[in-house]
């Protein structure tokens, strides 16, 4: 466990061995959530601040539970009632909070690069909980953990990421993560929602869903990021659902050992149909469960061994 990083900003900069270290530590923490007393003293005396400038349910709650199960003190920052609404910069906000002797910031922001800017201006650790269209590293790590649990290893697996690739930070982090651990990644979606030059990341590109899901091991469905779309990329949601939504008919084409994943929140009836989301092949709730162990591991590695 030779971890030397103060921050976790993205998977692009991580080595394969660093990713594997996080997954190994997460595996050791997973049984904590199954105990009657769901707590260990690993971060006793540490203070962690949830600095969320965007709405979040799963990520924010998961980080808060992870911190509390490690016995840390947690402060959740309400942007709407903060000085940010009065014009204070995010750097000044972080510096003022750090002056209260906190140990870690968990940052979500609509602007790509915001967590890194904060990390450059504070001594406390910074963990990226999703920034703009850049990365969402802990989501990808919990996805890697979940897939590894099912298959034993990721090397040689075929992963198809379907949907709004252009605006998805989850897609980018997953591409880096799966590729570094030896997976083969295919991206699929409407042409306007596939970034130009994404082939340079070593992924296959297709615009046909049947081609994407044929012989794949993981079908990873993405939500349409309508709140980040500055223009109309699609004729209609109905057409998108017909061409790229995973319904019962398309589900039946999957091979026996193909699993379905989704980072949430799901738009039922658009990228995934309700009956498909509840199938045995769905790993969606397992992803949520595993998120706590993975975030416990990230918190422990970044701040748990600091004196």
- Return the average pLDDT rounded to an integer: 93
Strand content: 5-15%
What is the structural class?
A: alpha/beta
Q: Tally of extended strands?
A: 9
Principal-axes shape call: globular
Distance between the termini: 17 Å
What name does the CATH topology of the largest domain carry? Rossmann fold
Please report the number of helical segments: 11
Radius of gyration: 19 Å
- What is the H/E string? HEHEHEHEHEHEEHEHHEHH
Low-confidence stretches: none
CATH A-level architecture of the largest domain? 3-Layer(aba) Sandwich
Helix content: 25-40%
Number of domains: 2
Characterize the largest beta sheet: strand count, sense, and whether it forms a barrel: 5 strands, parallel
| CATH homologous superfamily grouping of the largest domain | Aspartate/ornithine carbamoyltransferase
CATH class of the largest domain: Alpha Beta
Strand order of the largest sheet: 7-6-5-8-9
């Amino acid at each position: 466990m030779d971890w030397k990083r103060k921050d976790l900003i993205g998977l692009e900069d991580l080595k394969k061995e660093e990713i594997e270290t996080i997954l190994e530590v997460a595996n050791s923490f997973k049984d904590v959530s199954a105990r009657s007393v769901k707590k260990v003293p690993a971060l006793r005396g540490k203070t962690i601040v949830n600095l969320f400038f965007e709405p979040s349910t799963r990520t924010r709650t998961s980080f808060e539970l992870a911190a509390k199960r490690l016995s840390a003190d947690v402060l959740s920052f309400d942007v709407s009632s903060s000085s940010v609404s009065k014009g204070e910069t995010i750097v000044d906000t972080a510096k003022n909070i750090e002056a209260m002797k906190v140990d870690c910031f968990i940052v979500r922001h609509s602007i790509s690069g915001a967590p890194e800017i904060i990390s450059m201006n504070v001594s406390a650790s910074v963990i990226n909980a999703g920034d703009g269209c850049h990365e969402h590293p802990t989501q990808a790590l919990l996805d890697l953990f979940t897939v590894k649990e099912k298959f034993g290893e990721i090397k040689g697996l075929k992963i198809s990421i379907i949907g709004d690739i252009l605006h998805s930070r989850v897609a980018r982090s997953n591409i880096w993560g799966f590729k570094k651990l030896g997976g083969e990644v295919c991206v699929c979606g409407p042409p306007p929602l596939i970034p130009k030059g994404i082939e340079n990341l070593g992924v296959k590109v297709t615009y046909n869903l049947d081609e994407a899901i044929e012989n794949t091991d993981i079908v990873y469905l993405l939500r349409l990021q309508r709140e980040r779309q500055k223009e109309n990329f699609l004729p209609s949601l109905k057409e998108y659902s017909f061409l790229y939504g995973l319904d019962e008919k398309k589900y039946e084409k999957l091979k026996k050992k193909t699993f379905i994943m989704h980072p949430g929140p799901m738009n039922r009836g658009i990228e995934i149909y309700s009956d498909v989301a509840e199938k045995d092949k769905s790993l969606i709730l397992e992803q949520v469960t595993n998120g706590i162990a993975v975030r416990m591991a990230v918190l422990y590695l970044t701040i748990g061994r600091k004196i």
